[in-house]
Amino acid sequence: MKKGAEMEKAGNFKQASELYLGVLFKKPNLPEIENALRRSAQLHISETAFSIATKNEKGDKEGVVNEYFNLNSFVNQVNYFTKNLDIDQQTKAIYNKNLDQYLIGQYDLGIKFLSEQKFAEAESVFNTISKFNANYKDTPKQLSIAVNEPIYLTGIQLFGEKKYMPAYDKWNEIYTREANYKDVKNKLQQALNERYKEGSYYLMQENFKEAELAFEQVKNINSNYLDVKNLHREAYSEPIYRKAIKDLKKGKCRTAYLGLDDIIQRFDSYKNADELKSDALVCAEYPIIVESYRGRNSSGFESNIQNAVIEDILASKNPFVKIIKGSNDISSPYYNISETSKNNTQLKRYIDNFYVRTNAKAVLTIHINQYQLQDEPVRSYDVNGLEVKKLKARNGADSLVEKMVVYKEYEKRSTLQSSITYRLVDIASGKILMQKTIQKNEEQELRYARNSGSSYKMIYPTRMTADRIMRDDSNYKNLQTLFQTSDQINNQLLVDNILTDFRKRIVSEVLLFNPEE
């Protein structure tokens, strides 16, 4: 209120009114502020009316209509809170006279800009006319031309350059805004039809990539346009289909299968792709026997790793790799196989005797080179603590009595060192297709505390303060946790960690291996 009064005193009536309006917007129905607003607003109206009259005398039509327009907006805003404020009739008459003459000039200027194809300037002029009188003459029509015609003409140019989809996008911009502008609806149809014809031409030339792009663009706009669905499927599928047939003849059955599966996943069917896919899968199947051999102190880890690898390969749902669980017996001829020493006759006889009718093509062998679980000697430490007891004095009050005690802290550590070698061996040739040795060490530490005397719950850790042994309340919970910790290390965690790492690395290599490459 005070600031508004200062503005009024300085003759800044509009700024004062705006301050009062700000207050009333936040908190209406303040009579004192409403009266102040009415006073300052009326002074601003009178002041502006004088300014409008001056501009009228100077022949400044644009200045008159713009200042009156802003004043009228101001009055409407003020009347939201204070009623019956109005602009005097003489000022209104000045405005109306100048407005008629101003709009005539602006309209003629807009038409001139359109004739010169200065569309941005014309749009600005007709927008100005609409601000004062939206229905002046045929302003809506002329404004539509100013906005749409440059886009329409750009579409014509692009269409002439055989850039049918960019032309479509331009005309669609107009159609979305004003569907009945000129022949824009027909233009959209022409662009779509020409792109369709272009795709058909590419398809006849077996330029499948360009044909697919053209038909996909048409299909994205209208999936039911002529035969676009079938032609798009043909343009996408035919090169993959032809390559799959060639790959099958070359024995690249996995590649053929994946290509045909891509077609079927996308389009359900194409020619005899289903039949060829089945043939490719039969050809690409790669049954593998998994054998794992025990090592010194392996404690059944050979079975664990064998079962884990089989489980993960089955879970991968790889369409090509089939798994046959093999032996753990070190009498298997695959136990000692190497690149330099292999007896194909012995290997063949072994497969025929033990894995007849499996159609296995390779054997995955897993050798446990090292599996050593070691528990280090337990280390113990004497630690000073304070036993705290609560006693009752003769007067019945409670008192705390602290007594120095010694409890023990223990440290245990277990380590598991393991190393394996895995090989993938081709059954027909005895050739080692893949071989790798991996190792991993895991260790686990355990700390716990014990007290042979009184209850551990009464024992606190200590700390030194100014050469005095003090009770350490802040670490009481940590010490209690040590007292309650088991003295047994769970060695299965070590085994599980190593097993997880080994199985992941073996399975990843096997699934990535492609015998056709």
In angstroms, what is the radius of gyration? 46 Å
**Mean pLDDT over the full residue set:** 90
| SS summary, helix count | 17
Strand percent estimate: 15-25%
Helix content: 55-70%
As residue ranges, the low-confidence spans are: none
Order of helices and strands: HHHHHHHHHHHHHEHEHEEEEEEHH
Extended strand count: 8
What would you call the shape? Answer: flat
Structural class of the helices, strands and pairings?
Answer: alpha+beta
- Largest sheet entry: 8 strands, mixed
End-to-end distance: 87 Å
Overview of the molecule:
It is a single chain. With 517 residues, the chain is an alpha+beta fold. The protein is built from 17 helices and 8 strands. The protein has helices at residues 2-9, 13-26, 31-57, 61-78, 89-115, 119-132, 139-160, 164-177, 184-204, 208-221, 228-250, 253-267, 273-284, 301-316, 344-354, 476-484, 492-512, and strands at 286-293, 321-325, 362-375, 379-392, 398-426, 432-450, 459-465, 468-471. Strands 1, 2, 3, 4, 5, 6, 7 and 8 form an 8-stranded mixed β-sheet that branches. Strand 4 (379-392) and strand 5 form a beta hairpin. The radius of gyration is 46 Å and the shape is flat. The mean pLDDT is 90. InterPro entries: TPR-like_helical_dom_sf.
